[in-house]
Amino acid sequence: SKTSKALLTHTKRWVLVDAARQPVGRVATQIATLLQGKNKPIYHPTYISGENVVVINAEKVQFSGKKWKQKLYRWHTRWPGGFREETPERLHKRNSTEVLRKAVDGMLPRNRLRKRMMENLHLVAGTDHPYDENIAETITLTSSQIPQLPAMLVGRSVEHPDDDVPEGIVTVEEIDLTAMLAESTDGTARLYTKPNKTDKQ
């Protein structure tokens, strides 16, 4: 019913997220969305309408490439000569969940609500946590999918982009892009070529 849907919308739920083998940036983006309440129709940037998010296996997040050793966290102690920097690898050894916490904190708006939003984030190393009775939903993190290539390409002339193109100017061909890419020598295929000046004359 409409009443039950409205009640669920305004209710602050507890959501469980499994971060095992997930890229740090991707999982942090989706957690930040839940903390801000952007998944709800009542979202407004001036107040907190987000969920309580419990993240298990927070120590098993992954970085792409060599970011474990090349990425740097920098800060200053506000004392003379107090510049400090640290790699994610060293930070993970000190505190296994701090890498993900920093990523989520950096994706939240920089205002007074950020600290209150971070209080709703509960990072757990492993799968055991004391919030089993509160969990109302388990979120499966979505991975970005590569869009499929179109099966048909319609070529239009430059002289008549919007009009009904006369016969012989528009060509409609069924093109197998996968076969084209496989047959090309350098792994790429040029679908549209620039006309030469000699062709216009």
Topology (SSEs and partners):
Elements (H helix, E strand, L loop, with lengths): L1 H9 L3 E5 L5 H13 L15 E5 L10 H4 L2 E4 L6 E4 L1 H7 L3 H10 L5 H6 L2 E3 L11 E5 L12 E4 L15 E4 L2 H7 L13 H4 L1
Parallel strand pairs: 1-2, 1-6, 2-5
Antiparallel strand pairs: 3-4, 7-8
In short:
By secondary structure, the protein is of the alpha/beta class. Helices cover 30% and strands 17% of the residues.
Protein described:
The chain is an alpha/beta fold and 201 residues long. The chain has eight helices and eight strands. The chain has a four-stranded parallel β-sheet with strand order 5-2-1-6, with helices on one face. A two-stranded antiparallel ribbon has the order 3-4. A hairpin with a 6-residue loop joins strand 3 and strand 4 (83-86).
Q: What level of helicity do the residues show? A: 25-40%
How are strands sequenced across the largest beta sheet?
A: 5-2-1-6
Q: What would the average pLDDT be, to the nearest integer?
A: 78
Written as H for each helix and E for each strand, in order along the chain, the element string is HEHEHEEHHHEEEEHH
Shape: globular
Structural class by secondary-structure content:
alpha/beta
Quaternary organisation of the protein chains: single chain
The count of strands amounts to 8
Radius of gyration, Cα only, in angstroms? 26 Å
End-to-end gap: 70 Å
The residue ranges in which pLDDT falls below 50 over 5 or more consecutive positions are: 144-158, 165-177, 180-194
Most strands sheet = 4 strands, parallel
Q: Beta fraction of the residues?
A: 15-25%
Q: Please, how many helices?
A: 8
